[in-house]
Specification:
alpha/beta
Amino acid sequence: MRVLLAETNWNAMTAAAGLTEAGMLVTRVDDGRELMDFADFGEQSAVVLDLDMPDINALKLIAQLRRKDALMPIYALTEDASWETRKKAYDMGADDVIFGPVQPAMLAAKIKAAVRRTGGYASRELRVGTLVLNTETISAAVGAKTLQLTRKEYEILEMLMLHRERLVTREALMNHLYAWDDEPDARIINVYLSRIRQQIETCGGDPELVETVWGLGYRIAAEQTARQAA
């Protein structure tokens, strides 16, 4: 999962470091305008920002983010103890407003749970057919056999499973993996997908679960659908 986070103060910087330690990809930006730019063109699973923004009204920014995406989990940090301030953030569309020094492990757990629910999953395990992905251990398995995946291969598989039955473009995968930071040739996605299919097959699963829709993108298909397509 990738989190878009504005590092506008020490509390937000602590959150960024903690989310990274919790195994999440973090896109760090310096202010509200840069956050909105990345929100427009990036591929993030959730957004974290502090209500004390140096360059823009954070409440209006939350409203903009919510208009852009009705389901994106948005988390606001604040040192303001007043309920009125927090209520306004909720009214603008924040999913949660966290008061006081951030506890990164708790924030990471909240984000992961929200992203899973947005994808239609009720627990930390994402299941499609015999394939099971555990968002806490950052691992995937078919039955009792664990897939030997690199971190980027895991991220691709997680993104596809969170978007099950929906197309994910090559551009979206690249933005999620690299966030425009030292991007390799986009054909690297073919290499990653080939390895993922190979690992699924090695572990006794159906490699066609990961489907290529030529010219459009990729998706995780139900096993029965995949076999019919084959």
